[in-house]
């Protein structure tokens, strides 16, 4: 439905976006994930019409989006700062977009009432934004963006200003709302947990380029670039060259993994902390440096000779090992992912 | 326990006293200046209001209300209303010129913003009178404007550009435009640009965004700027004196004439009171609107 092809944008010497191509499907919850300054917000601003790309095309249902002025696009944006109009009440803020469509007063009131009920703010209609809490403002911003029933809803770091508990609630609410209204959502976030839990598919951005586009599970289990392997979730990365049974590491010998790369290609082997085992016939041997207990999981740092950073192991619940004790680390070959470098 | 309450009380009052002393040190000089040089002379002046002028100037201390009845004499009322009109026109035009200027400056990159703001206040570095005289040179019969127009063959004989209401208004706008631009700039600069983007995103055309978002949110700046232009324009006597041909066309001239030519200090004081009253009402309106915003 939304087709982004070869979009580039430079600001002076800085390249914010470099030949970005994405296809976003009807009704999809799509996340643009990346560290701050990776270009994801620039892309969002291009979709909303506040920026124009230097090159590339963007079409929405086959129509050229870039030729339409910002105020004519069937695209609504929920701003990171919410950008609520401080001189208008909640109801006025939400009605603003409908008034621009020149709808009848009764129709506007009905739709504003409906959407405020949907986000649970029907009793707050007469308040000004500064009289609301952060979570309530966020919901006003959301109501204001969806009341126009856009074909595409853009959300810029929608939950970043909220504290952890409210954030979890709002995540669920966003997801529920997306199912209900059936609008295509594109959310920009630097928070990988947020992206993972909300999105159907995620595009990982780094330095203006799309690194990988995949569903959350694939992204986590099969990272395809060193950046994705390091950015999405915790990972243990080993350097070396691909070989038929995994990775030939310079200092650590042969490490098991699934390789589709030609032998001898410089590569990284990525193993998730929760895939590592502390028992049995160890592939690697080392000493425990530190144990941290988090309730559901424990993190064990293991220093391995020939490697500068400790290897991180995550185990279920509490663990018996203690700092200083020698351990053996192992993993199944299927859990070692080879990434060309 | 008992000791702490006994020693606590004097410590507290001492702290209060030293805070009061601190306030006095900071406020003292300014307060003294205002009282001695503004309030006392003003009170003296206003004390002449209930009396009448002597035959050769001076004051006859004989209570009378005639100074107030003279205020609504059409002769003087016309001058007051005329001043209101001139000051209002000057303020409105200054707003219409100043708003786009301030808006543009607020969009400039940081470095150019500073340069533009310095350029706006630059005229204040030159003496006010000199700048008004410069307008006489520009607009006089053989002045630069007329000679240029004649050289271009657009007119046959010099236009009468000086000594009319339009000239006064031009002079006032020229003098006080910076005072309009600065508070407008401050208000526009403070406005979150995302609010304008949000308005566009919700389907508002640029004009609608301006009327519904930008203007209401910069209204305090608009009111302050209008006040900064209206107040000195309304009581002005230099500009109408030099560019208006010296007739008593504005309250400022009228008051000046009462004191220096007609030697009618009581009526001059009454006119001053009327002027001050109008300005106080305006300031109260501004304070009220600022509190609402």
Automatic annotation (TrEMBL), chain A:
Q: Which domain of life is it from?
A: Bacteria
Gene Ontology cellular component?
ATP-binding cassette (ABC) transporter complex
Instruction: Kindly give the PROSITE patterns that the UniProt entry links to this protein.
Output: ABC_TRANSPORTER_1, ABC_TRANSPORTER_2
Where is each ABC transporter domain found? 2-232
For molecular function, the Gene Ontology terms on record are: ATP binding; ATP hydrolysis activity; transmembrane transporter activity
Which keywords label this protein?
ATP-binding, Nucleotide-binding, Transport
Q: Does the keyword Transport apply?
A: yes
What InterPro entries does this protein's entry cite? AAA+_ATPase, ABC_SmlMolc_Importer, ABC_transporter-like_ATP-bd, ABC_transporter-like_CS, Mo/tungstate-bd_C_term_dom, P-loop_NTPase, Transp-assoc_OB_typ2
Pfam families xrefs: ABC_tran, TOBE_2
Cite the PANTHER family for this sequence.
Answer: SPERMIDINE/PUTRESCINE IMPORT ATP-BINDING PROTEIN POTA, SPERMIDINE_PUTRESCINE IMPORT ATP-BINDING PROTEIN POTA
Q: What is this protein called?
A: Spermidine/putrescine transport system ATP-binding protein/putrescine transport system ATP-binding protein
Q: What lineage is on file?
A: Bacteria, Bacillati, Actinomycetota, Actinomycetes, Streptosporangiales
UniProtKB/TrEMBL annotation, chain B:
Residue ranges occupied by any ABC transmembrane type-1 domain in the UniProt entry:
80-286
Q: Can you tell which superkingdom this protein's organism belongs to?
A: Bacteria
GO cellular component terms, alphabetically, are: plasma membrane
Question: One GO BP annotation here?
Answer: transmembrane transport
**Transmembrane portions of the chain:** 21-49, 86-105, 117-141, 161-188, 209-231, 265-285
Listed A to Z, the keywords are: Cell membrane, Membrane, Transmembrane, Transmembrane helix, Transport
Kindly give the InterPro entries that the UniProt entry links to this protein.
MetI-like, MetI-like_sf
**Pfam families referenced in this protein's UniProt entry, alphabetically:** BPD_transp_1
User: What is the membrane topology noted in the UniProt record heading this document?
Assistant: Multi-pass membrane protein
Write out the annotated subcellular location: Cell membrane
In the record, the note on similarity to other proteins reads: Belongs to the binding-protein-dependent transport system permease family. CysTW subfamily.
PANTHER family named among the record's database cross-references: INNER MEMBRANE ABC TRANSPORTER PERMEASE PROTEIN YDCU-RELATED (PTHR42929:SF1), INNER MEMBRANE ABC TRANSPORTER PERMEASE PROTEIN YDCU-RELATED-RELATED (PTHR42929)
Q: What is this protein called?
A: Spermidine/putrescine transport system permease protein
Species in which this protein is naturally found: Streptosporangium subroseum
């Amino acid at each position: 439905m939304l087709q982004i092809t070869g979009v580039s944008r430079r600001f002076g010497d800085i390249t914010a976006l470099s030949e970005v191509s994405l296809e976003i499907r009807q009704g999809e919850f799509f996340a643009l994930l990346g560290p701050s300054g990776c270009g994801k917000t620039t892309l969002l601003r291009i979709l909303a019409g506040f920026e124009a790309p230097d090159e590339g095309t963007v079409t929405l249902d086959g129509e050229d989006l870039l030729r339409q002025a910002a105020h004519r696009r069937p695209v609504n944006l929920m701003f990171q700062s919410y950008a609520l109009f401080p001189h208008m009440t909640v109801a006025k803020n939400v009605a603003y977009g409908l008034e621009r469509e020149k709808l009848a007063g009764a129709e506007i009131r009905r739709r504003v009432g409906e959407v405020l009920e949907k986000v649970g703010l029907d009793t707050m209609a007469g308040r000004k934004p500064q009289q609301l809490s952060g979570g309530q403002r966020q919901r006003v911003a959301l109501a204001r963006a969806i009341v126009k029933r856009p074909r595409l809803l853009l959300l810029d770091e929608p939950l970043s200003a909220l504290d952890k508990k409210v954030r979890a609630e709002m995540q669920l609410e966003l997801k529920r709302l997306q199912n209900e209204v059936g609008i295509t959502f594109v959310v920009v976030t630097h928070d990988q947990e947020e992206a993972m839990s909300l999105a159907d598919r995620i595009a990982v951005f780094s330095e203006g380029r799309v690194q990988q586009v995949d569903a959350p599970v694939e992204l986590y289990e099969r990272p395809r670039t060193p950046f994705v392997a390091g950015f999405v979730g915790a990972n243990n990365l080993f350097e070396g060259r691909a070989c038929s049974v995994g990775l030939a590491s310079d200092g650590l010998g042969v490490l098991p993994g699934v390789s589709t790369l030609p032998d001898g290609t410089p590569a990284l082997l990525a193993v998730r902390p929760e895939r590592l085992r502390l028992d049995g016939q160890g592939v690697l041997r080392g000493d425990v440096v530190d144990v941290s207990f988090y309730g559901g999981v424990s993190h064990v740092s293991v220093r391995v000779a020939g490697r500068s950073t400790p290897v991180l192991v995550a185990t279920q619940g509490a663990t018996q090992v203690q700092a200083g004790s020698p351990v053996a680390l192992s993993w199944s070959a299927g859990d070692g992912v080879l990434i060309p470098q | 326990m008992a000791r702490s309450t006994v020693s606590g009380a004097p410590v507290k009052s001492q702290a209060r006293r030293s805070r009061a002393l601190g306030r006095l040190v900071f406020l003292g000089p300014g307060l003294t200046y205002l009282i001695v040089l503004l309030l006392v002379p003003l009170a003296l002046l206003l004390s002449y209001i209930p009396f009448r002028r002597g035959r050769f100037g001076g004051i006859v201390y004989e209570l009378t209300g005639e100074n107030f009845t003279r205020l609504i004499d059409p002769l003087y009322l016309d001058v007051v209303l005329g001043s209101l009109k001139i000051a209002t026109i000057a303020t409105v035009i200054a707003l219409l010129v100043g708003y786009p200027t301030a808006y543009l400056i607020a969009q400039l990159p940081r470095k150019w913003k500073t340069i533009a703001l310095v350029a706006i206040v630059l005229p204040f570095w030159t003496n006010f009178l000199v700048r008004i005289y410069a307008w006489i040179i520009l607009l006089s019969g053989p002045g630069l404007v007329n000679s240029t127009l004649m050289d271009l063959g657009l007119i046959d004989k010099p236009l009468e550009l000086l000594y009319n209401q339009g000239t006064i208004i031009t002079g006032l706008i020229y003098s006080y435009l910076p005072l309009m631009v600065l508070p407008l700039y401050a208000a526009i600069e403070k406005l979150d640009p995302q609010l304008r983007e949000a308005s566009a995103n919700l389907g508002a055309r640029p004009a609608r965004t301006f009327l519904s978002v930008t203007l209401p949110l910069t209204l305090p700046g608009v009111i302050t700027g209008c006040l900064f232009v209206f107040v000195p324009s309304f009581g002005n006597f230099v500009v109408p004196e030099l560019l208006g041909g010296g007739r008593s066309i504005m309250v400022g001239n009228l008051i000046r004439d009462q004191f220096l030519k007609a030697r009618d200090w009581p009526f001059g004081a009454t006119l001053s009171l009327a002027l001050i009253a109008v300005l106080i009402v305006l300031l109260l309106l501004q304070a009220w609107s600022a509190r609402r915003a």
